[in-house]
Each structure stands twice: as C-alpha cells, then as structure tokens.
Design a protein that fits this description.
265 residues, alpha+beta, Membrane-bound Lytic Murein Transglycosylase D, Chain A, Arc Repressor Mutant, subunit A, 4-stranded antiparallel β-sheet, 17% strand
Amino acid sequence: MFNLKKGLITLLFALPLSFAVSHAAHAASYTVTQGDSLYQIGNLFNTSVTAIKQANNLSSSTIYPGQVLNISSAVYTVKAGDTLYLIANKYGITLYDLRKANNIWSNSIYPGQKLTLPGVAATSTQTYTSTTSRSSDEARSVIPYTAQDLDLLARLITAEATDQPYSAMVSVGAVVVNRVQDSRFPSTIGGVIYQKSDGYYQFTPVMNGWINKPATQEAKNAAYAALHGSDPTSGALYYFDDSATNKWLWSKPLAARIGNMVFVY
C-alpha cells in the first residue's frame, strides 16, 4: 500500500468508435472547484494564466469555487457506446484530466453530453477511429512494458493484495498503469513503484522488502490484465486499506471499494 497508509477483468468489446470533435475558439468552459488556481487550470488545459485572464476579462488572478471560465479547448459530444476511458485514451489525455476538466467522478455519461477535452486544441475538426480487442489476451498493451516490468508489477500485486478478490489485484496493477500514464508521476512501471516522496517510498512493499518476494501466478495474470487495459476502478491513482485513518486519502473522490481495499482518484 502507499506509505501514507496501507493503502472482472473488464473486457473491452470490439466496437468501431468514431470520435468527432467540434472545435471553436473558447468553445469550452470550466467550473472552478475548491483549491483551484489559474496556474493549475492553465496546466490542465495546456494554456497560460495570461490567456485565461484575457479570455475572461479578469483583472487579477483571484477566482472562486463555482466560477465558470471560458477556456480555449476542444469539446466532444458523447456517442452511444462511449466511456470516459475510451475517450481519454483516444485523445491522448489522462482519464484523471478528463474527469477533472468536466468535474465527473463517476462513470456515468450519456449520448449528447458535451465533454471538454483538456489540452486538445480548438482549432480544427478531427476524427479518430479505433477498434478495441474482444479480450485482454488479444488487446494491445496500454503502456509499453518488458517481461521484467510485468514481473515487478506482479510482485507488487502479490505483496499488496494476495488475500483480496481478484478484481482488487487487477485494480492494484491498474493504479500503477494509471500513474505511468499521468504526467504527475514517473513514466515507467519501475519509476512509479520505486518512487519516493519526501524521502519515503510510495509503496510499503518496497520499504519492507516484500517487493522482492516471488509473484504468484494469479498476480501475474492480474498484472497482465491491467497492462492490457483492464481497470475495475476506471482511473484510480491511489489505494489503501479501509482501516486507514488518513484524512487526506479519505477526502479524495472514491473510485471503488473491493474487498477491504479502497481506490480513489
């Protein structure tokens, strides 16, 4: 688990998905949430504080929760069969950023719904078509990995979730995959698992040495599933035991509770 506190394979059916984006200058809007700053919003949308202030006629950098800002970003209209994961994946943005830009922390979206695509320029019309495999065995991996990466991820899963339901094991692997895909974390499996924050390892098994124990076959299966797109949490970045008392972890949006493990965004 994370050092803060011990922290279904979803098969994707082959659906030809056509993603059409309608772009226009300042086509999108963003609703400010608690803790936001213009700098953070600028990073989210790959724009500058100056550009945001000019677009919204702001004379200062002061903003408040609930304030709606005009943002130069692409807007996507949800089609039947879409999921947040597929939309984020096809546009090369993280699931977390897509959720944050639209303040959507559940998996419920509906045809006709407008979603802001953070970091996708509102300058032209683009169409993306993708076919996703019918099984994790046939699917291409969502991130590059080696046999050593697979083994390392499986050893983490073994140490963290051997006594938990299989979907929790897959979810542990998915958290690592989600971090690799998120620019706020290292870009490799090893980098994520061995990352230190304020001098402390992010994952307890690295600190106590359990990461060096051999992986079980079930954990290897779970690691493989996660690397090939299975994520029962739909984008979680943290997990912990439900006996944790850390208020910071409990304050984060809930992604899933599986066994006695809690997964949050």
